[in-house]
UniProtKB/TrEMBL annotation:
Residues 234-253 are annotated as: Disordered. Its cofactor is Mg(2+). It comes from the Bacteria. This is Cobyrinate a,c-diamide synthase. Belongs to the CobB/CbiA family. Transmembrane segments: none annotated. Catalyzes the ATP-dependent amidation of the two carboxylate groups at positions a and c of cobyrinate, using either L-glutamine or ammonia as the nitrogen source. GO terms for biological process: cobalamin biosynthetic process. The a and c carboxylates of cobyrinate are activated for nucleophilic attack via formation of a phosphorylated intermediate by ATP. CbiA catalyzes first the amidation of the c-carboxylate, and then that of the a-carboxylate. Comprises of two domains. The C-terminal domain contains the binding site for glutamine and catalyzes the hydrolysis of this substrate to glutamate and ammonia. The N-terminal domain is anticipated to bind ATP and cobyrinate and catalyzes the ultimate synthesis of the diamide product. The ammonia produced via the glutaminase domain is probably translocated to the adjacent domain via a molecular tunnel, where it reacts with an activated intermediate.
């Protein structure tokens, strides 16, 4: 089979169908068989890509038709797989979910012209699998369905029944199975899977890797391999990028000023689009990581800081007990330098959790927050920064997504705080002097103008600090 681009898309029938496990098994199995592959994630997700990176040693890149045009997605995929064997892109939700907005896994596979491997949760199903696969294949004439991986199977006999059912109906073949096994489970919490670093510390990941290798050893790798190229000599020589690195391949700016942006990066703050960092670096901005959990103060000579989302609610006391770091954030804000925060990063800039008022966080915004047992908001968003003179005054709309369980509770009396953005004409987020924060996770490359003004905020701080140092 000859496809235009090397690689595959891993789809499912629904969330929880086993897409992540299948993707991890593919990444590991292909690598052990001499292929060099890049992981990708369809749609807005910060957790699954970290698992991709753990098992592959390569930065996982988000591909999202809501954020980028078809041409930009194709260019990004091609750049990130250049010289490699291809890519493995994990889908989002069910294969056709998102058709109305053209953001489904099907849409991504169509844009990239990649074959699709369907992960099917097969507990309690036998020959009926054939009707399910036939329905998925025929729902769209260009579904590109090329194979099936059955997840949660029982005995080897179960796999044989599923394989024969597909073969007798002339459907895409069964390429492998992952059986029901306690060692093949990924723990979850309210935002999805438990963060990979937590599992790494507990030793669970080593066992998972071994089990994936064991259970995928009898997959039809000779049939899977036809979707990939053999890697170039350069790739085989060990070219790699660290999972914690910026996305490589972006053209670097000739800007020699080297603006410095501090980025929170630890177990509490982990939700970022690596493409945001890469886009910022291409504009002459140096990314400097710091840890609100462990560092005593912010790094020196920063022109701005970026607090991403994550799980700060699981580190309430640790964050509040790092008093010197909180003081350095408050001093940074008081000095007039730029602070940008998203979701969990925004919570860190409030007074802290409503349920425990003894815990005090940065307090830049006069709110506390409380966690809920259900999602408050989920979905794509298009936002316009609220501008004024010198403050994102010329920005056009920028795209991103919501995904949060918490809500903000204002102090009494309710404070007056300027909104940071408008979403469908309604205020969203806040700004306080040089601080801009909201629940939104923004995809910076979707708005070149926003990127320019973000860089301008840092440049203004850089110039101010340089002048101050002369006196």
């Amino acid at each position: 089979m000859k496809n235009r681009r090397p690689g595959v898309v891993v789809a499912g029938l629904h969330s929880g169908s086993g897409k992540t496990l299948v993707t991890l098994a593919l990444l590991q199995g292909l690598q052990k068989r001499g292929y060099v592959v890049r992981p990708f994630k369809c749609g807005p997700d910060f957790i699954d890509p970290r698992f991709h990176e753990w098992i592959s040693g390569r930065t996982s890149v988000n591909l999202d038709p809501f954020f980028l045009s078809s041409g930009d997605i194709q260019a990004l995929y091609d750049r990130m797989t250049e010289g490699l064997s291809g890519g493995v892109a994990e889908g989002v939700m069910g294969f056709y979910d998102g058709l109305a907005k053209k953001t489904s896994t099907y849409d991504l596979a169509r844009i990239l012209d990649l074959p699709v491997l369907l992960a099917v949760h097969s507990k309690g199903i036998a020959e009926t699998l054939a009707s399910v696969v036939k329905g998925v294949r025929d729902h769209r004439p260009d579904s590109r369905l090329a194979g099936v991986i059955a997840v949660q199977t029982g005995s080897p006999k179960h796999g044989e029944i599923l394989s024969r059912a597909l073969e007798e109906e002339g459907l895409p073949p069964l390429l492998g199975t992952l059986p029901r096994d306690e060692n093949l489970k990924l723990p979850e919490r309210h935002l999805g899977l438990v963060d990979v670093r937590e599992l790494e510390r507990s030793g669970q990941l080593g066992s998972l890797s071994q089990q994936l290798e064991h259970f995928s050893s009898n997959w039809h790798w000779e049939k899977i391999g036809i979707f990939f190229d053999r890697p170039s000599r350069e790739s085989l020589s060990g070219r790699s990028d660290s999972p914690d690195s910026l996305v490589p391949g972006t053209k670097r700016s000739g800007n020699q000023k080297k603006l410095r942006l501090g980025v929170a990066w630890d177990s509490a703050f982990r939700f970022y689009y690596p493409e945001n960092w890469s886009a910022l670096e291409s504009r002459g901005i140096e990314i400097v990581s710091f840890s609100p959990l462990q560092d005593p103060v912010l790094p020196e000579e920063l022109d701005g800081i970026y607090l991403g989302g994550g799980y700060p609610e699981h580190f309430l006391e640790e964050l509040s007990q790092n008093i010197s770091f909180l003081e350095s954030v408050r001093s940074f804000h008081a000095s007039g330098r730029f602070i940008y925060a998203e979701c969990g990063g925004m919570l860190y800039l409030t007074d802290g959790p409503l349920e425990n008022e003894k815990i005090r966080w940065a307090g830049l915004f006069p709110y506390r927050f409380r966690m809920n047992g259900h999602l408050r908001r989920l979905g794509y968003v298009s936002a316009v920064p609220v501008g004024e003179e010198g403050w994102f005054s010329g920005s056009s709309s920028i795209r991103g997504h919501f995904f949060h369980y918490s809500e903000l509770v204002p102090k009494n009396p309710a404070p007056e705080v300027s909104p940071g953005f408008l979403v469908d004409g309604r205020p969203e987020g806040f700004r306080s002097g040089p601080a801009l924060a909201s629940y939104m996770h923004l995809y910076f490359p979707s708005s070149p103008r926003f990127l320019e003004e973000f860089a301008d905020q840092l440049e203004n701080n850089h110039s101010h600090m340089r002048k101050s140092s002369l006196f």
